Amino acid sequence: MAYLTSEEILDLLKSGLVKVEPFERASIKPLYVELRLGNRFTTMVSAGSAFIDPTNPKFSVFEGNILTNQQRYLTMDVEDGSSYTAMPGEFVLATTKEKITLPNNYMGILNARASLGRLGLQIFCSGGFVDPGFSNYITLEIFNVNKVPIVMKPGMPIAKLSLEKMGRGQPMQMQPLSAFGAEIK
């Protein structure tokens, strides 16, 4: 399989098979859609214990689509024109400004912007894949590995979404929303 070109991405957008909402034509680049940082930021302020053990059967970050009380999170909505400052060593969850909708026969590959990585701001989407049939805002896992704070502003370019057509056959049916994606809009 191969990444789709800008022309192929535009054709899918025009047909309605792929949706990027809100859509700006300038976001289409030669091999990807440029995604912007959304307005909601969530950071863990307390793990509820001295450590986190994800192998413990009683450990749960989510119950349904709600963050559990085992961990304490601070969520804030940052207005356009304002900023969120990631402190050195801070891990924060955020979302894209765009809601992405993919059909069942296309997948997305999310990559961070290299320019931000060179500043020490690491952007992840666990596994880097956006599943076929996904329809939501993409949750970003952001980590400041620099020794100084880094300012992030809603609307700034944050990631690149490439698209790829699936091979023969249909993929397994996925849950329509990720647990965190359902919580953050």
Task: Describe what this molecule looks like in 3D.
The chain is mainly beta and 185 residues long. 10% of the residues lie in helices and 41% in strands. It has helices at residues 6-15, 114-117, 179-183; strands at residues 19-21, 33-46, 62-63, 66-67, 72-77, 84-86, 91-101, 106-112, 121-124, 129-130, 135-144, 150-152, 157-165. Strands 1, 2, 5, 7, 8, 9, 10, 11 and 13 form a nine-stranded antiparallel sheet that branches. The protein has a two-stranded antiparallel ribbon with strand order 3-4. The longest helix has 10 residues, at 6-15.
The second-level CATH architecture is Distorted Sandwich
- Please count the beta strands (DSSP E, at least 2 residues each): 13
Tell me the β content.
35-45%
Structural category is: mainly beta
Number of helices: 3
Provide the domain count.
1
Helix content: 10-25%
Radius of gyration computed on alpha carbons: 17 Å
- Topology as H/E string? HEEEEEEEEHEEEEEH
The name of the CATH topology is Deoxyuridine 5'-Triphosphate Nucleotidohydrolase, Chain A
Q: What is the CA–CA distance across the termini?
A: 32 Å
Under CATH, the homologous superfamily reads Deoxyuridine triphosphatase (dUTPase)
Shape: globular
- Flag low-confidence runs: 177-185
CATH class call: Mainly Beta
The residue-averaged pLDDT reads: 84
How would a textbook summarize the main sheet? 9 strands, antiparallel
Any chance you could write out the topology, listing elements then pairs?
Layout: H1 6-15, E1 19-21, E2 33-46, E3 62-63, E4 66-67, E5 72-77, E6 84-86, E7 91-101, E8 106-112, H2 114-117, E9 121-124, E10 129-130, E11 135-144, E12 150-152, E13 157-165, H3 179-183
Antiparallel strand pairs: 1-7, 2-5, 2-7, 2-13, 3-4, 6-12, 7-11, 8-10, 8-13, 9-11
